[in-house]
């Protein structure tokens, strides 16, 4: 009996019980393989975006996360072969537009901001750091497999959007950004 075919809603397959998994190509690889790892990183980022949206009390701000969540779900599998990802300037332009709109509504800053404030803002900051980690891993992988510039640009802009969203989410609830206070030993 083929469990996958007979029960399409089955959650476990037992196929990964020995530390191997299948790529979208059907190739079996270790779960520690870069291609599997990067998919997990993107899934983690997507989960933090969902967490930020669930904590957020401003529907307009939460709506800015949904396109990224949809794109990340699609990107996760495609990043198994970064050179095949076909992002274009439109996704990056959309993110830049959102950044510009939100940033124009925020007070200018001339200080460093610590992650914190509201739960939504804090979740955005965690997502931002995960996004930066993905970007670093893709850059590190570039020597082994080419990563199209739009892929790196996408994650770079998305992390910028998450920083601005974190500030906007604090502002929406009248919570000030958490200012960094330079320690005496520095």
């Amino acid at each position: 009996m083929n469990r996958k075919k007979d029960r399409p809603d089955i959650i476990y397959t037992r196929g990964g019980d020995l530390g191997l998994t299948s790529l979208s190509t059907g190739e079996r690889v270790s779960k520690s393989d870069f291609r599997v790892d990067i998919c997990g990183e993107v899934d983690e980022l997507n989960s933090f975006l969902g967490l930020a949206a669930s904590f957020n009390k401003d529907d307009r701000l939460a709506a800015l996360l949904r396109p990224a969540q949809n794109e990340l779900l699609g990107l996760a599998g495609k990043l198994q072969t970064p050179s095949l990802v076909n992002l274009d300037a439109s996704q990056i332009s959309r993110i830049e537009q959102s950044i510009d709109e939100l940033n124009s509504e925020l007070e200018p800053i001339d200080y460093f901001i610590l992650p914190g404030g509201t739960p939504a803002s804090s979740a955005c900051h965690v997502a931002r750091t995960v996004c930066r980690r993905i970007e670093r891993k893709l850059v590190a992988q570039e020597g082994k497999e080419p990563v199209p510039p739009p892929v790196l640009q996408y994650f770079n802009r998305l992390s910028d959007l998450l920083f601005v969203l974190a500030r906007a989410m604090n502002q929406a609830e009248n919570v000030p950004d958490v200012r960094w206070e330079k320690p005496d030993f520095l």
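Helices lie at 3-6, 34-55, 59-63, 65-78, 89-104, 119-141, 149-172. The chain has one domain: 33-176.
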